[in-house]
Amino acid sequence: MPAPIAATAPSHPAATVAWSELAPQRDYLVRYARRRLLDPALAEDLVHDVFEAVASGRALFGGRSALRSWLVAVLKHKIVDLVRERVGYDSLDAAGDDDGDGGTATPELACPQPRPDEVAEQRERLAQTLARIAALPEHLRRAVELRLLADADSDAVCRELSISESNLYVRLHRARCALAG
């Protein structure tokens, strides 16, 4: 059995993470990375980088969350770093460069339009939501209409309703709970 990996400051109770704890997380992390990157090889590389960071002590596990949650957080940071790194190199014209026409072809950018049934469904949901807002008690309905629907500033809403800012947030919270339930 391989030795535990030092994953945080030696004085911390969760100072080591054994390989046996990391191995079961690998498949989950790879699936997570594949869904984000759409590139299996790149996903494998990033998961390897996560485990390398853990092994080298660059990623410190403090034990304040579940091991999987912490590993996913490290992976998310690796993905963000990769995207930032590639921003300067990936180009929309890259696909058009293989045409042999000197790269003058414009890439096809998909701008998906909703289908008529999707538009009808969205309108129906909007009508239902507006009806549920109208059915709220007056003090909650006014707070939602002014702050969320009219997009008024919180201070202006508080002045109009003669309430404090914390009371406005309580009303909005209660309205959201009533709408969700």
Structure notes:
With 181 residues, this protein is mostly helical. Helices cover 60% and strands 2% of the residues. It has helices at residues 19-22, 26-37, 40-56, 67-86, 116-134, 138-149, 154-161, 165-180; strands at 5-6, 16-17. α2 (26-37) packs parallel to α4 (67-86). It is elongated and about 60 Å long. Residues 1-15 have low confidence and may be disordered.
List the keywords:
181 residues; mainly alpha; Rna Polymerase Sigma Factor, Chain: A; Arc Repressor Mutant, subunit A; 8 helices; disordered N terminus
Structural class: mainly alpha
- What is the name of the CATH topology of the largest domain? Rna Polymerase Sigma Factor, Chain: A
Task: Please tell me the total number of domains.
Answer: 2
Largest sheet: 2 strands, antiparallel
Quantity of strands, as a count: 2
| Beta-strand fraction estimate | under 5%
Number of helices: 8
Give the structure's gist in a few sentences.
With 181 residues, the chain is mostly helical. The chain is 60% helix and 2% strand.
Write the layout of secondary structure elements.
Elements: E1 5-6, E2 16-17, H1 19-22, H2 26-37, H3 40-56, H4 67-86, H5 116-134, H6 138-149, H7 154-161, H8 165-180
Antiparallel strand pairs: 1-2
Helix pairs in contact: 2-3, 2-4, 3-4, 6-8
